[in-house]
Amino acid sequence: MDELFNIFRFGSNDVKPAKGKVLIAEPFLEGRYFKRSVVLLTEFSEDGAVGFVLNKPTHLNINELLTDLDVFESEVFVGGPVQNNQIYYLHTVPELIPNSFQIFDNLYWGGDFAILKELVYNKKIERDQIRFFAGYSGWSAGQLEDEIKENSWLVSSLGMKEIMAVNNDDIWQKALTQLGGNYKVWANFPKDQSMN
């Protein structure tokens, strides 16, 4: 019986949060923004953390939200509950968008929006080079570490391909399956727990 009970206890792993890591929500974490979410950390320090939810689509295109980008079709994702009336972006073209912030390798966020508009109108940026988010996820000093201790999140890594993919409805399941062990059990846990 103890063995079975242990399978259903979701414990955090020993990976520490850092810029470029992802947070994987535990299966019982509720809420509109974080239920079954995978969050890319774009900043992490003793002052707090910032990230973007990778797998919550708004079902709107950027050209529906920003008239400045009306010629560009790219789905916008819900980045989190903070400033969700603002648009943020991840991209892989720092040589084209100055003043961007490096996350890891060739993955950046933000940068000069006026230059981005020019790139869009001149067709010098492709859909697979940029992802848009409405809002972001933010944690104050020590808040994320406390949530990890409470087993709300696992910390892991994902490759550039997974992070930049817009068709990633199953990224939560894939991230858990990659971790192996008991975490694979959670990957198949039903969304509606009453169906179990």
UniProtKB/TrEMBL annotation:
GO cellular component, one term: cytosol
Pfam families attached to this UniProt entry: DUF179
Family: Belongs to the UPF0301 (AlgH) family.
Protein's UniProt name: UPF0301 protein EO244_04090
Organism: Ancylomarina salipaludis
